[in-house]
Structure formats: structure tokens, C-alpha cells
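Hi,

I'm pasting everything inline rather than attaching a file, because the server keeps stripping attachments. The sequence lines come first, and each chain or strand is labelled.
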Amino acid sequence: MTAYRDWANDDNAALLTDLYQLTMLQAYFAEGMEETAVFDLFIRRLRERNYLVACGLDTVLHYLETLHFSPAALDYLESLGLFKPDFLHYLADFRFAGDVYAMPEGTPVFPNEPLLEVVAPIGQAQLVETFLLNQITFQTNIATKAHRVVQAAQGCTIADFGMRRMHAADASLKAARASYIAGVDFTSNVLAGQIYGIPVTGTMAHSYVEAHDSEAEAFRAFAALYPETTLLVDTYDTLDGVRKIVALAKGLGNAFQVGSIRLDSGDLVALAQESRRILDEGGLERVKIFASNSLDEHRIADLLAQGAPIDGFGVGTRLGTISDQPYLDSVYKLTEYAGQARMKLSSQKSNLPGRKQVYRSYAAGKATHDVIALVDKKREGQPLLQKVMHNGQRTEAGRTQPLNALRESTMQSLAHLPDRLLARGKADPPYRVDLSEELQGSLDVTRHRLEQEMAAR
Amino acid sequence: MTAYRDWANDDNAALLTDLYQLTMLQAYFAEGMEETAVFDLFIRRLRERNYLVACGLDTVLHYLETLHFSPAALDYLESLGLFKPDFLHYLADFRFAGDVYAMPEGTPVFPNEPLLEVVAPIGQAQLVETFLLNQITFQTNIATKAHRVVQAAQGCTIADFGMRRMHAADASLKAARASYIAGVDFTSNVLAGQIYGIPVTGTMAHSYVEAHDSEAEAFRAFAALYPETTLLVDTYDTLDGVRKIVALAKGLGNAFQVGSIRLDSGDLVALAQESRRILDEGGLERVKIFASNSLDEHRIADLLAQGAPIDGFGVGTRLGTISDQPYLDSVYKLTEYAGQARMKLSSQKSNLPGRKQVYRSYAAGKATHDVIALVDKKREGQPLLQKVMHNGQRTEAGRTQPLNALRESTMQSLAHLPDRLLARGKADPPYRVDLSEELQGSLDVTRHRLEQEMAAR
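And the predicted assembly:
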């Protein structure tokens, strides 16, 4: 058996889809159904969140503008025995030529609001569903969680340390980027640093201490190479480790420039307080305390509320796997075909018909409510959906933004959220999202039409 | 700003690591510390599981045998201002030249048992920690969850439908493979089908039905193109949809070959029973019922226990994000350096020192218990760790196996688990894992030595 290379890339991403997207695409091709469809990507429920931070658009636009079927992909599809020669020939020239309307990355978004609308011949719009959901669900989920962590940290530094337990490689890259946009300061993920320009950071591992003949020697050696580093003090006995830092400072005199210590186990409140005391008594008031170990927004808030003198946090698994809510209830639904509104009737899984716009209103610098409206009825308020792709090409609004500009605009958008939404608990009342009268009317008319059609079957 | 390509691949995977691995590697290089280290990769706790299914080794061996720093990677590292020219020169020629001992993929594994031991010069062994944990944690977690789902389904067909909400692209590939190894029958992920040769499957989406003038027309068109397909019946009214299938069969006569219907909402027990009745009364006894909608091992077991006549299940989000336990407590710990056992002392985070072997004992075809022992003391039982890499090259035991052979051997290994472990609830008693006397002795001696050294500081 020959070795395979199981990495996704621009050349095979067209196959990063559910099989049924391709069988439906062939069906539309065979039936000559090529009228324009509108699909909405939205989240049905917030569950344990008060808002979501839209993220993943840039990945999606790159996918849409480079989407193609390679010869290897076509060979594989042919081998399945499901696809006819004329359809495979059509796929060989396939390009996404639709329009996309989307909320900019970093926009706060609420249930039932389209994060994104795809307007394209129905087969094209259908094919891309799986990849769009795959990227936007995860990136939005992790950007949201990251912002909760940043809020809880009240200005303390936050570093993303989560790669080792994230769900494989792509997640680690997208998570580092999403977390940075949402206010996390650093990542330990070196490739994310290279690709996105995110500042990278790191400390040292217990193994480094253990490999040396003594902890003191490990500290001395590491600080000689990286004078302003962070030293990990809990390999054997935490407070004993801190005292070794003080001893190292005495030994080195002015050459001692260690920036911080890291605590990674035990009672972080008590250990941070004792460590602070030992450092201060040793004249090391300027050495900071950095903490890690199963942290999330709740633990960080608790630590700070209990007065732990911690200056920065390394957040790993609980952020990186969004362990309290590892998925969002995201869906991608047909809302219009051939100029006619469409929706699903059955049990709790309906959608809002037609093309839409979301308008956000503000008072005293804070968002007060949103209105989801039909796109052709202009309203008061800030329209959130922008045209980011036209005929398969990015518009000016869809251009890749410099990451720091995106982080800055995200921080500004999120600062407009009402304080009750930025709390960790469920906001009461939740943020208000209304449907415009016209949209409610269209919803009623479409439902009635479908029920009539069913009754007349 | 130029477009970036944010895909991981063989050429940039060396940077898929935490920054501290590289700073520690430079420190070892600078200090001339290049003696052999042993690192264990193991899981600390089972939490909601009775066993884990080892998975991810093939990904890891491919990474180790291709690991290198590209010119672009070196340029980026240089730009950080942390690394010296002689070290960057060393990295340019860096190759992983260590040995790896591992449990074969598909082996049931328990807490504190090494899934994998890396034996290499310390810097090399340290560098690879992050990637190894990233892949093995996720792949083992999802293989385990998949096997629970397969057990609950009692022989019914299971399809992986989870890509859309998994954590980005790489997770969807590795999950499809891990799930297939663990007994899932199909994936909807087309790229996973191409790369690994997993059988692909799919049905149709609600949007396809909605885009047609009527549900009946949608069914007719899809069945004309895919005679043995699965038709989705719950877009408007489920039982009404089933009656349309019966009508379609009457209209088509012998040309009707539809294989199954899919239910995707509502009370799946009642709807499956009613659907079965309607199909049977219409002479369609051979049309199967396939169900989806927020399924996991618990819901599948409940549906079957309540007598739902369901023949197959599409399992998506809850498997694909392992939503009840989205991470494992996996760690990678130094256990030996320069021939001397090493361990961490502090609070609940210790490890077993030295190189080890795991021996599994059986009685009446079922595994009875494991013993973790020092590697140089041979014991009774089946040794689980095999040498899969020598000097950076795969051994015969480390060769990529054909996926179906691997799936078969996994099914055989898992069939040896005691029944109480294969139940959904927590096994009582849990599986027994002993430490050999020699290993317990080494643990005590190492702990004592480290405590003495600390006292003598």
C-alpha cells in the first residue's frame, strides 16, 4: 500500500463535502435546474452564550474563489460509479460564480441572523454547504469562547496554549486566529504565528527541569539563553521553586532579567499569593506571575475574584476544544429558489424565507436590538450584512484584512454589547432580535402556501 | 496584504508545535544535552469511558519520518529574534532519528498505559510532543466514541455524517478514518473516501425537496437518477412523505428500487413505527428506515430499546465533536534521561518512570487485566507495545496497514473486552491495571531520590 498524504489543501478541498452535495449537484445538472438559490447560514440557539462572534469568513471566501475539481478528484468521483461522464465533464470546469453577503468577521451575532447568505445557481450554492458550516461553526464558536475568556481576565494577558488537545491540525490554526481576533494576546502555535502573524509566546516544560541535575541548574541555563523568559516553578515543590528564582536573582545581580514565573498545578490562589510574597520579599516585585492548568472564563474569574495576584493566563484545552459547548447549532438553509421563498415546515427546524438584511440599533453607544428584515425594505439602523463576493470574486469589502486591524474592529464591535451580555451568566433579558413586519408577513404567507400545497396533494 | 494559505502540510508541519518546544530544543543544543530521553504518551483518566481505542499512530509516524524545517520555516524562526544562527543551521539539517514503541492502532488502552514511547535525543523527543498529542488525543477520543456508537447500534448500519460541525478540516478527515477503524460503516466525507478508501454514502437534503415544485416530484427526479437511493421524507410532513414513497412505487412498478427512507426530525420511535406500517402496507417491506438527528450511543440505544424499526443511523455532531467529552486527559511525559528515571513530583500530575511494556492477560477469550512493567523484565501475557520506528524509519510493525485489515484487527481486539466494559454506563469494577513490583519499586525509589535531592538543596 502506498503512503497517502491526508492533508486538506486548495487542490482537494472540493471533496471536503458530504457526498449528497455532489449527488444533488448532479441531479440539478440532469434536471436543468440552474436558477438562483439563496441559502442562509445561521445559528439556531445560543445555549450557554449571550452572543456569538462571527468568524471564519476569510477561510470561506478563499475556498470559494479557489474551488475546483482536480484530475485526481474527478478520477475518484468517476470510480464511485455514481456520476455520469457529462457531469464529470461539467465538474472539470466547475467554478463558484455566486454572490456572498456576510457579516464581517468579529461582528456580534444572534440566533436566526444570517452570518452569511450565498446567492448562486442552486447546485453551486448547495455544494459548498458542508465546508462553509465546517469552518464557520468552529471558528465562530472558538472566537466566542475566546472573547468570554478575555472578558473574564479583566485586562490580564491571555495566551492560547491549546494546540495539543485541539481536534487535529487545522483546528489549531483556525483557533489561534479566531482567538487572537477575539482579544487573546498570544499563541504558542508556531505555525499560526508564521501564517497569520500572531505574536507567539511560550515558557518551559516540566521535562526541561527534570532533565537537569537540579531545578536551580535548569533555571540558570534557561535564563542564560532567554534572559527575559518565564520560568516554570512547580515541577517538584512550587514555593521551593519560587525561592530558587529569588536565589537565582541574588546570584545574577543586574544580569537577572527573568520576566515571570509560571504556576501550573495546585491551589493557584494560595500559591500565587505566597509566590508574590516570596518574590516581593526577595526584591522581585517586577517579576510577574503567570498561571495555567485547566483554565477557562469561570476559573479565571474565580481566581481574580479571590484576589490571586496573577498577571497572565495560559488557556489550553477548555478554550481549544470549547469543552463546555463543543459545537454550535449552525445550519445552512434554502430560503429562496427561482425568486420564490422556500422553507422547511417540519418540527422546530424552520427557517426565515427570502433574502434578508440585519439592522442593529444603538443608544448611548450600546446595541439595543436587531431587526431581521427583507433585503429590499430599507430600515433604520446599521446594516450588518455586506456584499463580500460578486460572481465568485471578492469585493472590496471581502478582501483579506490585516489581522491587527480585524482584531481592533472586533474589539470595537464587542465593546458596543450591553454589559449584561458580557457577563458570564445568561443575560436576562437576552438580546432582542425582532423580525420586521414584512419578514413576518413573508414567513406567514410562505408557510400558508406550503400547507395549502400539501393539503392539495 | 498578500493572500495566505493556512493549510498544514508536510512542508510546514515542523512548526505545528508550541514555541517552547523550539526554545527548549535550542537550550538543549546550547547546553550540549543530547543524551537519550524516553517520553511516554498516556491518558491519565477515563472519565466517562470504560476503555479507549488507541488511534493516530499512522499520522504520527508519517510526521516523524518527514519532519524537516523548510527555508520558509527557518526564515520565520529567524525573524522572531529568539534563535541563534548556529541553531538555525542545525535546524536546517534536523531530522527525527529516534525510536518509537507503540500500541497498534485499534488496541484497547487504559489509564497510565503508554500508547506510545519515544526514545530519542532529548531535544528531538521534546520537539514532537505537541503534534503527537494533537493527533493521538483526538483520534483516540473519536475512535473510542465511535466504538461506543457501534456497540449501541447492535449491528445496524452507522454512517459518519459529522463533517459540518467538526472542528475544521483536518478533524473531519481523521475522524472519518478513526470512526471507520472502530466499526462505523460509511462516511459522507468525500475527501476521506478518496484518501483512505472508506466507503462513502449519502442521502438528500431538505433543500432539494424544497427547490422542487412538490415533494413527489423531488422524489421522482432523485430516484430516476439514483434508483437505489435513500429519500428524505420529513421536509413537510413525515408520514405524508412516506405515503408519497408508496405512491411513487405504485407509479414506477418494477422500476422502483428505492433502498430506504430517512427520518431526520420528530419522535423517531413513533415515526419509524408508523413509517414501517405504511411501507409494509404498501408492499414495501424491503425499503429500509434510516434515521438521523442529534444521535449518539445513548439515543440509538434508547430508540432500539423502544422498538423503533430502524435499520441504520446517520451520526453527526455528537460523534464528530465527541460532545460529551471533547478531550482526553492526555499527556506526554519525560520518564528517563541519560539512563536515569525521571518524574514530576507535584500534585496529582506524576508519571511512571523508565521504559515500560504493557502485558495483557486473557481468560476464556476475554481480557482480564493488564500489567504495566519495566521493559527489561519479561512477563506472562501479550506485550502490547511494539517497536514501530527505528532511527526515524518505520519498522515492519510500523508500516501503514490497509485500512480494512486495520478495521478487522480492531474489531477483533475490541471483541476481547469484558462485556461490562462494553456497556454504556461506567463499568464496576473498572478494568484492572496493575503495576509490576519492579515498576512500583522504581517509582518509589525515584520519588525518594527526588525528595532527598530537594531536601538537600
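Chain A has a mean pLDDT of 95.

If the labels don't parse on your end, tell me and I'll reformat.
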